Structures are given as C-alpha cells and as structure tokens.
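Thread title: Can someone regenerate the structure for this chain?

I was given the following input by a collaborator and told the matching structure tokens would be attached. They weren't. Posting the sequence so someone can regenerate them.
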Amino acid sequence: MDSNEIKSLIQSYLNAYNSFDVDGMLLHLHKDIEFRNILNGVINVETKGIEQFRQLAEQSKKIFSHRLQTINNYSIIDDKVEVEINYEGTLATDLPNGLKAGEKLILKGKSVFKFKDKKFLLIEDYS
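Best answer:
Regenerated them for you:
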C-alpha cells in the first residue's frame, strides 16, 4: 500500500467512527483484528477478533452523544502507521469514574495501525 492508500483507509475508518457507523468501521478491519486502548501506559481495553471489536464499538456508541477524532500528523514506519490524534467527545451517560452526561472530553493522543491484506490487523490507541 502506498501512503495515499494508507491515509485514505485511516480517514475512512475515522469518518465511520465519528459518525457512529460500526459497520463502516468493520469494513476496514481484518478478521483477526487486535485492538488495545492504552491509558497512561496501561492497557485498559483489549479485543481480539472482529466480533469482540464489534461488541466494543456497539457499547462505545452508547457512551457518547458526539465524538470526533481529527488527524494532526502521520508517520509511516516500516509496517505500521502512527497517527497523532485530537479527540473530543460529549458524554451521553454518567460514567463510573464520576464524569457526567453532557461533559466534554478533550484529549490528545496517538493511534498506531498495522495492516494485513489492505485491512487493519492492529489498532492501538494511546492517551
């Protein structure tokens, strides 16, 4: 895959994510997708396989009334792509950590993507 194909695939995935389109997100995933969310160096969410990812994506839809990931920068390194991300979201529900419905989250982070057969084999989100 060339850099334009990679950028287009990532942007298409993020567009689906931003619009809560789980089927659109899954379209870009390899059947053996591994996903990890890493917060302060600790894995706090992990899925293996497309069905576990689907379940997480469906659950996540219910947490936010609005969410938006925007790309700041791409770095293509060998077989992976690191993407600097700005994230904002508005909670749709109260969370166990004390955050309340209607509150906004604004974060900066990084996502790492690895590919197989022109689909995502690995997604790691760091914040």
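Residues 18 and 68 are 5 Å apart (CA to CA).
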